[in-house]
Amino acid sequence: MLFRGRRQGDAVPDRRRRPPSDQPGAPGGLRRGAPGIDARRGVCSGHPRRADRSRLRRGAAVTDDLNAAITWLEEPLAGTPGGVLDGRTIFVKDLIDTAGIRTTYGSRIYADNVPARHATVVQRVLDAGVTVVGKANLPEFAWSVLGQNPWYGTVRNPTHPGKTTGGSSAGNAAALAAGLCELGIGSDTGCSIRLPSAACETVGLKSRWGVIPMDGVFPLVPMLDTVGPMGGSVADVALLWSVLAGRRIPEPHLEGLTVGLMRQPPEIGDGRPTETSDAAEAWVADLERLGARVVEARVPDASASTWPQFQHEAAQSHASTFPSRADEYTDVMRVKLEAAQRVAADDVAAAYRAIEEWRGYEPEVDLYVSPCVAIDLPPEDVDELEIRLPLSSFLRWINLVGWAGLAIGNMQLVAPYDETVLAAGLAWERGR
């Protein structure tokens, strides 16, 4: 489906953010002791907010303040009437192709890229009646745990002003929290749906690897990449997931499940001790009241560092433009890709073996509960290379094992299958 009245590839009226001709300076350093989200709380201000219709009408002005959109559609892209998403509005992460609408992947290199076809996930939501109102901002090529983008602006956190939105699906979470849309399609390779959902107090699902089609989505690390729904409630996320995955919404269910309380994430071999947190205890009473049995739980540590696998696949994803167009990347991305090209083959092979071992792991409980973020939310200009590991320690292992992870604010529910975490999340939401 193309933009109404326009040929494939033609320009679309929009409110565009243009990368400058020269790269700006690097972001500032970490400010210690800054206050942040209370890691013990889930959706800290009650349930996430549904979209404010008045804000949707003046959305371009609001999103300019937040840098939530790279492209705001002044003429929204309406889907097929009568579907289950008819009348609902959505932000699509600008990593995902939209036919006839600019898709930058958060980069300078693809600033004028106009895809010829929709990604399958976009076509599915349009067929279900959704209206696309914006292409969500993200860090360059989605490789960051923050919402920083020197080309299109740092995404602002409307829930915790001055603090990071998390990344990389930053624009989606900010738009949802600000009421600019009702739904979002994001991607998650290591934390990229769940971290922004926690930071902005919205809801997001990292789907089980392979459940939702990835064609038309710029790859970062194909063995870990997933697409997933984002929204203002578990019910909204479950509805959107049913369209994206082509599956039925599960019935709410927690009674009789054994839930593993995680105080510490598994080590993934990056050489850094993992954080310990008692934050998940805040949700034990609710889970037990709804019929779950809560026990202490841990997941085995990785047998070797998994980082070389990430670097290896990321380098392959950029082989057509790096290093041949290295001057069009930001300094931070150049550092990451240069390091990725130096990874030893033996280390890559060991990393793949470690991940394959994890992919065969059988959980000892039905469901795990943990915080998404176990540290104070840092300022929006924090150094990404300094903060990326502690900010994502409870999140990254789920991509490695290939399971599903549902963020409800800062509460994370984890299980091998999407249906399990959605059923539990729906029961928790209904029973609050």
How do you describe this structure in short?
By secondary structure, the protein is of the alpha/beta class. The protein contains 13 helices and twelve strands. It has a single domain, classed as Amidase signature (AS) domain (Amidase signature (AS) enzymes, Alpha-Beta Complex), CATH 3.90.1300.
Notes on the structure:
The chain contains 13 helices and twelve strands. With 432 residues, the protein is an alpha/beta fold. It has a single domain, classed as Amidase signature (AS) domain (Amidase signature (AS) enzymes, Alpha-Beta Complex), CATH 3.90.1300. The chain has a twelve-stranded mixed beta sheet, with helices on both faces. Helix 8 crosses helix 10 (345-359). The longest helix has 15 residues, at 345-359. The protein is globular and about 55 Å long. Residues 1-16 and 18-54 have low confidence and may be disordered.
Layout of secondary structure:
Blueprint: E1 14-16, H1 53-57, H2 59-66, E2 69-78, E3 89-93, H3 120-127, E4 131-136, H4 170-178, E5 183-188, H5 194-200, E6 203-206, E7 226-231, H6 234-245, E8 258-262, H7 284-289, E9 293-297, H8 307-317, H9 331-340, H10 345-359, E10 367-371, H11 384-392, H12 396-401, E11 404-408, E12 411-415, H13 418-431
